[in-house]
Amino acid sequence: MNIKRLNALFGSIIMLFSSYLAYAALPMAVEDEPLPSLAPMLENVTPAVVNIATEGRVQLKQNPLFNDPFFRRFFNIPEQQRPQERKTQSLGSGVIVDAERGLVLTNSHVIANAVEITVTMRDGRQLKAEVLGTDPETDVAVIKIPTENLTALKPTDSDALRVGDFVVAIGNPFGLGQTVTSGIVSALSRSGLGIEGYEDFIQTDASINPGNSGGALVNLKGELVGINTAIFSQSGGNIGIGFAIPINLALQITEQLLDKGEVNRGFIGIQAQDLNPDLAEAFGIKDKRGAIINSVMPDSPADDAGLKPGDVITSVNKKQVKKAADVRLHIGLLPVGEKVVFEILREGKRKKLTAYIAPRAEVAKNPAAINPRLKGVSIGDIDEDSPYFGRLEGVVVVDIERASHAWNSGMRQGDIITSVNRKPVKNLSSFLKAVDGEKNSLLLRIVRGRSAAFLVIK
Fold first, then answer.
1. Domain 43-144 has CATH 3.30.450.20
2. How far lies 103's CA from each of 49, 100, 123, 134, in Å?
3. What is the pTM of this model?
4. Which residue of 125, 210, 245, 277 lies most exposed, with the fewest beta carbons within 10 A?
5. Which among 90, 93, 109, 383 is annotated as catalytic?
6. Is 213 a known active-site residue?
7. How far apart, in whole angstroms, are the C-alpha atoms of residue 399 and residue 413?
8. Which of 135, 139, 381, 383 does the annotation list as catalytic?
9. 364-457 belongs to which homologous superfamily?
10. Where are the domains of the chain?
């Protein structure tokens, strides 16, 4: 190697080494201005995010026919059988939202089937928690811990979030301990994912992994904007698509859980579908956003309000409706008795109609007046909340009295009745006609879970 090449190589090494030293000694400030850092904000926020560990027991599933008295008698199965159980453990996260009352928000699936809940604070303290209420449909749960020396996170208006806003996710991924990741809001109002019953997610590319569930999604001011809930992944790890429940929605559910211990969802009595371009053209509608009503249950709140099939819903309580799922979300989050104002398009004219959320039991019909064999049974149409909606035609057993004739024959709440005396029933109206004045016994085909069976009510 000649001297010129040696000197060039040596010079390159010196330059690389100098660059490394300069990078390693990166200053904390430039021209007396500190470099941007999330550390000061996180020092105030992280004490309000806790780790949650649970121990529980869950009963092993068995065929629903084992709960049928007729099936038990026919196969001589003992009435009392000790259910089989297995122990479960879960790890997740939570957010202190009220230090004075010791209230912690988390996901319902984090504490599902929990017998014992242990909350670990940022400073290492371990506290026992009690459940105040859960709502699996939105995956929100509220637990309570001792109030001594707690720090709460201040919520902000999650409706003000915009795509592109910076956010930070804090939680306990894979049980490693508290971890912080950052990113942006990738999308808003994500729904139709099949993760929860009611979906209005914030989508973010801030890394959310198993164990982050129930943790905090905060803005750069350290304000709580969401509760981390789920990821979209084929491998189980983060691929940059995570979802959080908007804090406005979570707090709305929390109020009902604290008030009654549960969310008492009501009923309006409509079924709707997306307004696609073909339907919009057929109905002469220029704006292709909205939900078109395809059926209205007789004598329901929607019927009383004057809603009709063919009406296009454009907003519910001043919240814009882009698709049918928006209607279900806006109505499903309202408590019984709440007023609902619909803005609709009917034959090209805009109208406002007002309805009131009613309890499901009031909407469902008690068919005892037309067939005494069904005394104590309330029957209703399969509504949009049911996993059978759009998959089966029939009616659902909304409520049934214990020790009633139908109960003793094997009918249970939640059963889907698809036929009466071997004749299919499509809805509540056809069911009532089928049982009206029937003097013989009723042969009903029911669907329960993933099983189907016939039962006879004599």
1. no
2. 12, 8, 18, 13
3. 0.65
4. 277
5. 109
6. yes
7. 5
8. 139
9. PDZ domain (2.30.42.10)
10. 43-144, 158-260, 270-360, 364-457
